[in-house]
Every structure is written in structure tokens, then in C-alpha cells.
Specification:
It is a single chain. The protein has seven helices and 19 strands. It has helices at residues 17-26, 79-93, 176-185, 208-213, 217-222, 240-247, 334-349, and strands at 7-13, 33-36, 97-98, 103-109, 112-117, 120-129, 151-154, 168-172, 190-194, 253-254, 259-261, 264-266, 272-274, 277-280, 297-298, 301-302, 304-305, 308-309, 315-317. Strands 1, 2, 3, 4, 5, 6 and 19 form a seven-stranded mixed sheet that branches. Strands 7-14-8-9-10 form a five-stranded parallel sheet, with helices on one face. Helix 1 packs across helix 7. Mean pLDDT is 92; it is low at 215-219. Bound molecules: flavin-adenine dinucleotide.
């Protein structure tokens, strides 16, 4: 619960990896800070991802600042192993976290922020928003989508393939989520894969660690590009499930259908095809609802310099996407931006 009249130096909204990373660097200061997190347990949105999910980099490249994830049994850590690491990370540094606390609204009162939550009002001099994207799944608009009678779910709600056994399923989305879910569902269902353009599979030896390092000149040369073009974080990493799907030749990509009808989709050439379900692996938008009252959201983003909001100088945004720093929405990448954020907060209060 909130403590009436207590003024924090900093409140971090969100206790996922981004929030914890900022806390790690704030902990070295004398600031009086608190993390408010909507979840009942540690782990952020990793608590809700699908059962078989594995990270796309080995443990040393899937670690937060200060403490490396213990080496895992297999090269790529499982979701459970990463959740356990996050929980131990919190315990190790004993961060002040109040859980099951959802920040509904942030408003400004004079120089202070008032955070209205389901557990009362909190007051702070500075705020870090680290609420991720998982609460804003994105589904593109297609004509007659409302007429489709089959099942539709977003990848954020996908757990495993059991609901799709012997069904006819379209998986939409050419990134890592689309490829991994298609690989799994295609084992039990008839599938079609819809992507905006031809998806890029990274060579087998390239995984998240190279994406972060941007060190793979060999691959860049192969792509016949200069070093200015970087391997994209949305290119598909060949984790085991994807390798397996490639071996089974399931990754036959189709360009988007033009519309829905009640039993399925209508392809660009006008042919109808019946489907039971659509799995939308079409990404996310930053979750910023709590900041609406500050009137600083433009095109689903807040204009920042590094991570600091340009129009609200005591507010920082960490995680979310490259607009808050290169790879800041990734485990390995968030530390760099978290460090700069903490430094700026400490300076602003001294
Ligand atoms: P989150 O983990 O979403 O944490 C945000 C926290 O804020 C949550 O606990 C949420 O409940 C809370 N919150 C939100 N709104 C409020 C509010 N208003 N009040 C209070 N609390 C709130 N990255 C990698 O580096 N390697 C990978 O292998 C990898 N695999 C991925 C696989 C998938 C399927 C996805 C979707 C992402 C993957 N990522 C990976 C990217 C990234 O690491 C994750 O998305 C990560 O969860 C982002 O962490 P975060 O802390 O920014 O957000």
C-alpha cells in the first residue's frame, strides 16, 4: 500500500528486466527509490510467454548488469531458467519492489509526480517508465476481420499447440515469434505462413550474441552490404524449433490475404480458403497508457533524448524498443541505457 505523504526520489514503473536494470544502477546511490510492478511474481512479461520458448542467445549474452546467468544445461536457456534467473537477480540485490501494484495514471502536481494505483497514491520527484510492450499486442486491420467465425489469438496469448491439433491454422508474422510458433503448430495442424515480405533466416551460426555485437562481418559480406547495414533483431534466429521446422520444410511463406470471410481468408487472387484459427505474431506497441495525462505521447512513443523525455524532464523511458537506445528492449542491450538513465536521475536530484 502507499505510505501517505512519503515522497520518493524515484519510482520505477514496471519490474521486468528493464525496471530491474535501472534499479541495479540506482542501488549504488543513496536515493530513496521504489519499483511498482503489476505482476504478482517476478519475471515481467516472461511470465506469460509460451511454454516452449527459449532465449535466442546463450546465458552469458542473456544476463543483466552485475551478475551473469548461471550456465544452462542446453545452449539456449529455457523460459523457466530465465524466470528463475530474474527471481534470483531480485533477491541478490534486494530491490525494493511492491508487487500487484498497477499504475493507472501519472499526473504532475507542481514539481512532483502523483502515481495513482490500485494500491493508493504514490508521490515521487522522478519517474522511470519501464512497462514494456506485452500489454499492447498489435493486430493489423484486415477487411471483414469481424466476419471471421474462427479463433483468433495474438502470440502474447499463445501457450502451446494443444488447441490447434488437426485444425487449419494461419500464422501471420515473419519474425522470430511467427517462425517459432509456426514450427510448433505445424507439427499438429495444417498451417499456412503469411508474412509481409520474404523472411530472413540468419545462418545457423548467427544468434543473439552476434546481433548484439554486430560483429559478424562474414555475414554482412555475404549479404553484400557495407558495415552500415546491421543484422536486424527481427531476423529469424535458428533456435532448435526453427531448425526442426526447416528440416521439415514448413516455412513456406505467402504474402498477405486481402480479406476475411466467415470461414477463412480470401487470397489476393480471389480464392477463398477455409481456416479454423489465426495466430497473429504481429508484434507489440509500447504500453504507455499510464502516461496519457502528461500529454507527451506522439505516435505511440514519447520523444526522448537518450531515455529522458524531452517534454517532461524528470521522466525516463527504458526498454520498449530502439527509440530508447539500441537493443534496449533486449536482455543484453538494456543495461547500457539503464546505466545512463540512473546517472541522469542521480545528477538531476543532486
Ligand atoms: P516486460 O518484461 O514486459 O516488463 C514490464 C513490467 O511492467 C511487467 O511486469 C508489467 O506487468 C509491468 N507493468 C506494465 N504496465 C504497468 C503499470 N501501468 N503499472 C505497473 N506495472 C506495469 N530478448 C532477448 O534479449 N533475448 C530473447 O531471447 C528474447 N526473446 C523474446 C521472445 C519473445 C516472444 C518476446 C515477446 C520478447 C523477447 N525478447 C528477447 C525481448 C525482451 O527481452 C522481452 O520483451 C522483455 O520482456 C522486455 O522486458 P521489459 O522489462 O522491457 O518489459
Amino acid at each position: 500500500m502507499a505510505i501517505p505523504n512519503k515522497i520518493f526520489d524515484c519510482i520505477i514503473i514496471g519490474g521486468g528486466q528493464a525496471g530491474l536494470s535501472v534499479a541495479y544502477f540506482l542501488k549504488r546511490s543513496k536515493l530513496n527509490y521504489l519499483i511498482l510492478d503489476a505482476e504478482g511474481n517476478s519475471g515481467g512479461s516472461w511470465l506469460h510467454t509460451w511454454d516452449s520458448l527459449k532465449l535466442f542467445s546463450p546465458s552469458q549474452y542473456s544476463s543483466l548488469s552485475g551478475w551473469q546467468m548461471p550456465t544452462t544445461k542446453q545452449e539456449y536457456p529455457t523460459k523457466e531458467e530465465y524466470l528463475s534467473y530474474l527471481s534470483n537477480y531480485e533477491k541478490r540485490y534486494n530491490f525494493p519492489i511492491q508487487r500487484s501494484t498497477f499504475v493507472e495514471k501519472v499526473v504532475k502536481e507542481g514539481e512532483l509526480f502523483k502515481l495513482k494505483t490500485n494500491q493508493g497514491v504514490f508521490i515521487s520527484k522522478t519517474v522511470v517508465s519501464a512497462t514494456g510492450t506485452a500489454r499492447s499486442p498489435f493486430i493489423p486491420i484486415y477487411p471483414k476481420i469481424d466476419e471471421f467465425l474462427g479463433m483468433q489469438i495474438h502470440s502474447s496469448a499463445y501457450k502451446n499447440s494443444s488447441h490447434f491439433r488437426n485444425k487449419r491454422v494461419v500464422v501471420v508474422g515473419g519474425g522470430n515469434s511467427g517462425a517459432q510458433i509456426l514450427a510448433e503448430v505445424s507439427k499438429v495442424a495444417y498451417t499456412k505462413w503469411v508474412t509481409l515480405e520474404k523472411p530472413t533466416f540468419l545462418p545457423e551460426e548467427i544468434d543473439g550474441r552476434y546481433l548484439f555485437n554486430q560483429a559478424n562481418e562474414k555475414y554482412l559480406k555475404k549479404k553484400n552490404t557495407s558495415n552500415t547495414l546491421q543484422v536486424s533483431l527481427s531476423d529469424i534466429v535458428q533456435v532448435e524449433s526453427v531448425k526442426d521446422g526447416l528440416a521439415r520444410n514448413v516455412f513456406k511463406d505467402h504474402r498477405p490475404f486481402s480479406s476475411f470471410y466467415k470461414n477463412g481468408v480470401i487470397w489476393q487472387d480471389g480464392k477463398k480458403e477455409a481456416f479454423d484459427a489465426i495466430i497473429w505474431c504481429t508484434g507489440f506497441r509500447p504500453y504507455l497508457n499510464h502516461l496519457k495525462k502528461l500529454n507527451i505521447i506522439e505516435n505511440d512513443k514519447v520523444i526522448t533524448k537518450n531515455t529522458r523525455a524531452v517534454k517532461e524532464s524528470n521522466l525516463w523511458l527504458v526498454g520498449y524498443g530502439n527509440w530508447t537506445g539500441f537493443a534496449s528492449a533486449t536482455i543484453y542491450g538494456v543495461g547500457k541505457t539503464a546505466k545512463i538513465t540512473a546517472k541522469e536521475i542521480i545528477n538531476s536530484l543532486s
